[in-house]
Amino acid sequence: MNASEYDLDFFRENGFVRGLCPKCGRHFWSQGDWETCGEPPCDEYTFIDASPMAAPMDVHKVREEFQSFFERNGHTRVARYPIVARWRKDVFFTQASIYNFQPYVIDRIIEPPANPLTISQTCVRFNDIDNVGKTGRHFTFFEMMAHHAFNWPGNQIYFKDRTAELCHRLFTEHFATDPQRLRYIEEWWEGGGNSGPCLEVMLDGVEVATLVFMMYRETPTGRVPLDMHVVDTGYGLERIAWVSQGTSSAYEAVFGSVVADLKSRLGLEPDHRVLLEYSKVAGATNMHTAADVRRIREETANRIGISFEELMQTVAPLENVYVVCDHSRALAFMLNDAVVPSNVREGYFARLLIRRALRSMHDLSLDLSLSSMVSMQIDYYAPYFPEMEGNRDDILNLIDVEERRYHETLSRGRQLVSRMTQCMDADEVMDIEMLIELYDSHGLSPEIVQEFATVRVEIPDDFYIKVAERHETPDDTEIQEDDGSLGSYHTDPLYYEDPEMVCFTAKVLAHVDGGLVLDRTAFYPEGGGQECDLGSIDGRQVTNVQQMKRTIVHHLEHDELPDVGDEVIGMIDLDRRQQLMAHHTAAHIINGVCHRMFGNHIWQTGAHKSVDEARLDITHFENLEDEQVRELELGANQVILDDLPVNIEFMDRDAAEALHGFRLYQGGVVPGKTIRVVDIPGLDAEACGGVHVSRTSHVGQLRIIRTRRIQDGVVRVEYTAGMAAVRMMQADRVALDALMGSVNVLRNEVPSAVTGIMSEHRETQKALDRMTRRYNKIISRDLADEAPIVNGVRVITHVTQPGEDPAEVSKRLSSEPDVISIIAVDQGKPRLLVARGRDVQVDCRELLRSLMTVVGGGGGGKPDFAQGGGGDASRIPEALNRAAGMVKDQMNLSAGHNIHQGND
């Protein structure tokens, strides 16, 4: 690192001295006389029971004080972004406030929402999940308070000196901290493809802020300067609240009434001296393994003069309490921001938290539901995040569903673990891959597996970090790359100007990949889940239309294409276009109605719109019941009848986000400064490039064909609309009319009539089955009685007749002594079934092979039963006539073999 990056005028002018920490070798700046940098493990906490701040603050007080301070210093307060970073495709969750502005603001595609700004951003991280509850400072959910400034040529807001000044004033003037207790450590930061020098702000052993000066972009070929220089700060809300209160851990300071309520319910009255020493030791140690945790605990016990076991009586229950508090808080925010627990994507992490929380509640013998814990968190946060109150029922319902599924998992867990370990020796150790498989595929945590297993189970110290790492990055989306063949061709999309344009003229710009590139087109290319338009160009049928960036390629039936430079006439199949428009608009209607019906967790995960029918995939925890499907269909058709406008407008991304929020990105990430917004007022607004009708009434009738759960947490709604729905209705009427005629009843009597007929049919079928079994029994007995005897064995050959069950007859005959049966089926494809009694020394497989040489075909089986098929049915009689001789030959061969064995 270049020392000049940190040599600030603010430091020089205000008496700061640059020091070198002898323990970690890093430089730092301070107005105090410090030998070390102040960060653990170089120093222990010194603020516990001795806060350096003037007054204790809870998290809500810290948040307001922070943002008010920066508002008074020229910053605009900006509302938090969602926890799920749906505007980015490289991450699932918002893990820092700068995520909100990458890549579009940093790349200068859009303007920042304010400049400079202040924000308190809700975040989740899972890279330290195994340390939650143990270290006193690690959380999965946290709020990163920040102030940001975005500087580019001609627009300089402020950079390093003003940033350091504001930070120093916040702590010294606003929070009344002794300025000599602050230390600023020189560091380097990288994240999201950007980098720059930074200062870690230390106060009494705790990092309370990080001041990043984003100046570079990290590329595969090296580091390059950014046009924009960004002030990217992060202040730990939870840590500042902790330091202000001086409690034994951040958990005690942050969770307020929730942790107090839990401790009261459990009757926990921990020894403050134990917690104080434990926190100091933990703060001075970087914990990565169980061995680190064990060492901390042993050192704490030695300091206090108690045994390790006595220490654990205090520490262990509290760790579980803190886990429950942390995870329930994280869940309240994640589910509020439309995460549905599942085994994929964002939902995986919600389920991970739910099951870890439930495990800790079990260890505490806590007689509460997890939803009641989450409800306490909502109570604590809703006054400051009012959207949580509006989504309370939805959040708690999701938690209850998951808790029920968790207990169902436990009920079958013992049997599952037993089955997976039955081939292992008792002293064998279950490997990490098996533990992860049991967790990922079956929801069994390693602690549960350890309870159920009869083999050794050693739980890795960082198990949950390992499983989180496997799921933390979205699957790479295949991106079509321009191979250069498209050149710089730009096709003007006429379908946005007039979605019902039938005829247009255009000029041929190029032949690409066997297709035509035109200067303009009314053909909609495949995209957004919508199939492409069809029609003709100069009389040649269009078979496919694809888009690559700003170029649209038209593929034709004919090999001979119009020449480059030719003027051509395009004709659109309007009926097809109108049907696709109806289906695409219907997807927006269904999505909006589902959101109204089921709650905030509804989110589109996929869609496809063809001519005959369409589908929409939504996040939901279970398939829809019949009544819900009917309600959804009614709701969607009511929107259609309401004749709402479908407003379509190209908008600046920042303006669209400010107006509609991040639910815009139902169809995924949309690049660029300008996005096309399709808005059905009061129902649904999405960034969408598809073609749509101008009013909901133009969708016509909408019918839900069916719904089904296609994966964990995702439900597919299959539907049809417009004339396709009318055609389906007509087909249904034809079928219903035919059914009415068949059963000779009125339309409204059809369901009860069919139910009665099916009931009678089932009873008739049962009676027929009973008669068939009796008939097969009689047939089997008669065949056995009439069979010829070969070498003391009855050889039965028989061709089954309609109503006889060949398998049943064969099975009954094989239960008789001294019997070999060859049962043939010659209707359609011929079959042969060969069976023997237990006392008969004939290999049915060999006998079947001999028979099949006559009939043809093949087969196989076991010594006591074999079957084959294929060949020529007309040769079955010949095979059966030769069966007795084949049996005799095989029995003689078997007897001779036994004689030779006896002589040996």
Query: How is the main sheet built?
Result: 9 strands, mixed
Average the pLDDT over all residues and give the rounded result. 87
Low-confidence stretches: 476-485, 899-904
Radius of gyration: 37 Å
User: Given the helix and strand composition, which structural class is it?
Assistant: alpha+beta
Characterize the structure shown:
- The radius of gyration is 37 Å and the shape is globular.
- The chain has 25 helices and 30 strands.
- The protein is α+β, with helices and mostly antiparallel strands.
- The strands form six sheets. A nine-stranded mixed sheet has the order 1-2-6-7-8-9-5-4-3. Strands 11-12-16-15-14-17 form a six-stranded antiparallel β-barrel. Strands 25-26-27-28-30-29 form a six-stranded mixed sheet, with helices on both faces.
In short:
With about 900 residues, this protein is an alpha+beta fold. It is about 40% helix and about 20% strand. It contains 25 helices and 30 strands.
Descriptive labels:
six-stranded antiparallel β-barrel, about 900 residues, nine-stranded mixed beta sheet, single chain, alpha+beta, disordered C terminus
Topology:
Elements: H1 9-13, E1 17-20, E2 27-30, H2 59-72, E3 76-77, E4 117-124, E5 141-151, H3 160-174, E6 182-191, E7 194-203, E8 206-219, E9 222-236, H4 237-245, H5 250-254, H6 256-266, H7 272-283, H8 290-304, H9 308-336, H10 345-364, H11 370-381, H12 387-390, H13 392-421, H14 432-442, H15 446-452, H16 463-471, E10 492-493, E11 503-512, E12 515-518, E13 520-521, E14 535-537, E15 540-548, E16 551-556, E17 567-572, H17 574-598, E18 604-609, E19 614-619, H18 626-641, E20 647-652, H19 653-660, E21 674-680, E22 684-687, E23 702-711, E24 714-721, H20 722-743, H21 750-786, E25 789-790, E26 793-799, H22 806-814, E27 819-825, E28 831-836, H23 844-855, E29 858-862, E30 865-869, H24 876-881, H25 883-903
Helix pairs in contact: 2-4, 6-9, 7-8, 8-9, 9-10, 9-11, 9-13, 10-13, 11-13, 17-18, 21-22, 23-25
